[in-house]
Design brief:
Layout lengths: L1 E7 L11 E8 L2 H8 L2 H4 L3 E3 L6 E2 L4 E8 L4 E6 L3 E7 L4 H10 L2 E2 L13 H5 L2 E2 L2 E2 L4 E8 L5 E5 L20 E12 L10 H6 L10 H15 L7 E5 L5 E2 L1 H10 L6 E2 L5 E2 L2 H7 L11 E3 L6 E4 L5 H19 L8 E2 L1
Amino acid sequence: MRIQANYSLKQYNTFKIDIKAKYFVEIEKQSDIVVLRSDLQLSSLPWIIIGGASNLLFNTDLEKVVVTCRFKKIKIVKEDDDNVWISVGAGLGWHELVEYSIENNLWGLENLAYIPGTVGAAPVQNIGAYGAEARDVITRVQTLNLFTGEREVFRNSDCQFDYRSSIFKTDYKNKLLVHRVTFHLKKGHAGKANLYYSQLKEALTKYKKQELTPKIIFDTVIELRKKKLPDVKKYGNAGSFFKNPIISADYFKKFANKFSDAPYHKTINGEYKIPAAWLIESTGWKGKRFNKNTGVSQLHALVLVNYGDATGKEINQLANQIQEDVDHKFGIHLEREVICI
């Protein structure tokens, strides 16, 4: 356990916003919470949880206790001829886990390569990319109650996974700290490539299906992501800032009549998902600067960028303007994927 006061979180959020936390606490084990709660100063303040803060936008200094998990161990808990179940510490970097799976020729995580953040954030956000989501491979989530320190375990069906959401992001937000996550992965001979996402499928046309391996998918996904996303080491960003909106069939008819060139995906519920990037680009925001410090990436319209020393408020203002312009032109509200604090 480690406690630091008036601590800058600039290196702990991918937007690289320079704000301070009243206390920054790194937890490794269950007993750490009990010890922290016995401190009157710490227990009197509100507590919030962050992972790699790759999905957060900080607007102001936090008069709070900011808690993060640093437990990083990987342990095989079960395996058979075709399958492996691994329990992973929430503090491990997500991409490190994906690399581990590739090194061991395991299927299940390869489509989710090169996503920033931690393992603990994966079930909270139900991260997803290229036709895969974290919920596809998560079997159990072990949490620690931030008030009592008690361990609480959730099976996949308990997590209320949804598009970029879960029970940990809603009912238990800042109440339960994810400590371990168990994943069910397939061994090399027993798995197969997930080619549901058309762009990934097209990028792999030079291979026959039987030639595909987790490593090939992994490398291709990284190549695709690097083409679309600015390097977070150079420019602060949180990846996709907005969710792809879903509209009703009735509204889609009106929308399609007016914007016949709009791409879309029909969902199993008969609704229609419209790419938020297309909506933003169609309002002229792709590659546009909002001021000297902020703007929209030239590589992908969903990515808002900190080009210098932007504040969270400046990025928030940019997001508000984009939402207003999309709503005005298309009558569609863009919901934020990034959480503003």
